[in-house]
Description:
Helix content is 46%, strand content 13%.
Amino acid sequence: GRCVTTFFEYECNYGERWLGFNLERMMHSNVIVECEINRARMTQSNHNLTECPLVIANKAEIDFAKVPPLNDEAKAIFEKIGGRPVFLYQGYVASDRKDLPFILETIAKHRPDYCVLSLPGSEALDKRLAPYPNAFTLGRIPAPGHLAVTAKASVGIAVYNAEGTDNWALNAQYCAPNKIYEYAAFGVPTLGNRIPGLMDTIGAAHAGVLCEMTETSILAAADELVNRLSFYRAQARSFYASVDLEKQIGKVLGRIQ
């Protein structure tokens, strides 16, 4: 039978010196799985594969009954927030997300009736958001405890900056973040930037609003989401339900035989 090889990043940090065996032989003999359709098509082209790699979405299947309550730190922050809309970012504050601080600061600065929250924060981000009483950061919360925070959010944030021409830039363009599925599982729509990986998911499903990274566009997107939150919540839940992991896995198993 054939083996299954899954790549979580597109053409990054692998090859013979990483895997210890012939990459091309593996690519042509195994069933290859990517987590985003454009990555699959590029992999087929790059390696001259007869079959396009299959896709298993980076979707979290959440057991809602096992999500613990908010920890004390998060509970105290949400008590301060009260009933105001919360724009949440969850995930690493990494170099390929350089617009994240700009998004959070723009909303905090110009929309005092909204709140922004980053889980976790960072030393630089905490310092940048310090002037704004409606901006908050949390310490790291081990999974699945972070989902208790997700459930309290109004809007989730996803942003990836593709700079340069290497494969890491392609990873950002054709992103496959699990956070958009975690947001959507709780009916939390996404505010993100206009890149293919988000346009083909959040954008196509109307499960949020994607915009240019300017103050005007970010604020317009934030207002649109808050003003039509019931609509976008429903679209987010529909998007989550539409991704059938069992069907995707079934296709992979069918190709093994």
